[in-house]
Amino acid sequence: MKKIIFSLFVALSSVSAVQAADANAGKEKSATCSACHGPTGVSASPMFPNLAGQNDAYIIKQLNDFKSGTRSDAMMGPMAANLSAEDMADLAAYFSGLPSSIEQAAAAASSGTSTDSTSASVASAAGNVEVLSSTPAAAIYKGNVAAGKSKAMVCAACHGADGNSLIPMYPSLAGQSANYLAKQLADFKSANRKNAVMAGMVAALTPEDMHDLAAFFAVQSSKAGTGESNEVGHKLYLGGDATKGVTACIACHGVAGKGMKQAAFPSLTGQSQEYLTQQLASFRNGSRGNDSNGIMRNIAIKLSDADIKAVTQYITSLK
Ligand code: HEC
Ligand code: HEC
Ligand code: HEC
């Protein structure tokens, strides 16, 4: 028994001894984690655990277990699949060094950030608008919904008056992440995302206009998908493709395709198969290159035409 405990101790301590974990590197690597676990390791959604202040050896063990499949979770499996031992150690060093959720809440209370409505301050602290749909838009979006409504008249011809497009080649904007919408408008204006029609539409827009428009469309209700499901596409969406190194779409676009609003991971639900196919093809051939760090180009380049057909078909069935 003593022997077992001793070798366990050696195994655990060697984790930290062999890898000189770097919390700063971990902070950079944690950008994708923040969508679910919160920007300060405190999650805004009851579905995702807090990581701030967690023991580092425990975090490393969980990540290894998600990677090997010993602990199975549809979201964490693909997230851990791409992490090296060094990445895990760095991430664990970063999260374990953050003040715990209780300490963070106490600090926020004493600095007076939770003055008016607590839910609004939780929303801005944790950065997640998804779980707080009842909070007035003004409290969580930069833009002004009413101002956005009048500015959106010119968009209606293509994107629909309520942001639900009736024409397959034009994307729906209703219920989309406001951060994502504002980013796209700025990208069209800077030509970081190239499209002749949209370039003309945004030429005269100020950053304030963009935030107002984004806020207006973000609070419109989106329509559920009406397409038929697809078995192959379903598998790819949920599990990715380990042989090709394709990360599962679910990791960023969510179980129901609604994306991660605060992280500007777009909702895909309700888009036409035609639009989805065109965007994946553009990421694949690089003609759309406005995704930070090539996050979508790196995935699309590994997809065959058949993969794209199957996965876009599946996405049109998401409600
Ligand atoms: C798409 C959402 C999502 C993203 C992105 C994500 N996680 Fe998770 N994570 C989860 C969920 C859901 C669980 C709970 C899994 C379960 O129920 O077993 C979890 C659990 C964990 C756990 C176990 C916590 C515990 O108390 O047992 C660790 C550690 C973890 N995640 C680390 C990370 C790291 C590091 C990243 C970034 C590289 C990351 N996660 C990105 C959703 C996510
Ligand atoms: C004449 C038709 C037309 C009009 C009018 C128009 N758009 Fe667009 N919009 C498009 C097309 C086409 C695309 C797809 C561009 C591409 O393929 O990259 C698009 C894409 C977008 C996107 C990106 C959506 C996504 O899911 O990535 C946003 C945001 C957007 N438009 C907002 C607006 C706003 C706001 C207005 C009004 C100020 C507007 N559009 C007016 C045709 C139009
Ligand atoms: C690691 C995160 C991540 C994963 C995994 C991921 N995506 Fe994305 N996806 C993004 C981000 C971020 C964007 C928006 C890029 C930008 O800023 O324009 C995006 C954009 C898209 C768009 C364009 C949406 C629009 O409205 O124009 C489509 C379509 C898409 N992804 C499909 C997929 C599919 C299919 C998969 C799985 C095979 C997948 N994504 C996996 C992060 C991800």
What does this structure look like?
By secondary structure, the chain is mostly helical. The protein folds into 3 domains: 18-128, Cytochrome Bc1 Complex, Chain D, domain 2 (Orthogonal Bundle), CATH 1.10.760.10; 141-218, Orthogonal Bundle (Cytochrome Bc1 Complex, Chain D, domain 2), CATH 1.10.760.10; 231-315, Cytochrome Bc1 Complex, Chain D, domain 2 (Orthogonal Bundle). It has 19 helices and no strands. The protein has helices at residues 2-18, 23-29, 31-37, 56-68, 76-81, 85-96, 101-110, 118-126, 137-140, 145-151, 156-159, 178-190, 196-202, 207-218, 231-239, 250-253, 273-285, 297-300, 305-315. The longest helix is centred in the N-terminal third of the chain and has 17 residues, at 2-18. It is globular. The N and C termini lie far apart (54 Å). The model is unreliable at 13-19 and 113-139 (pLDDT under 50).
CATH class of the largest domain: Mainly Alpha
Overall tally of domains = 3
State the end-to-end distance: 54 Å
Total strand segments: 0
Output the structural class: mainly alpha
Strand content of the residues, in percent?
A: under 5%
Radius of gyration: 21 Å
Order of helices and strands: HHHHHHHHHHHHHHHHHHH
Give the name of the CATH architecture of the largest domain: Orthogonal Bundle
Summarize the structure in short:
The chain has 319 residues and is mainly alpha-helical.
List the main descriptive attributes of the protein structure presented here:
319 residues; mainly alpha; Cytochrome Bc1 Complex, Chain D, domain 2; 3 domains; globular; binds heme C
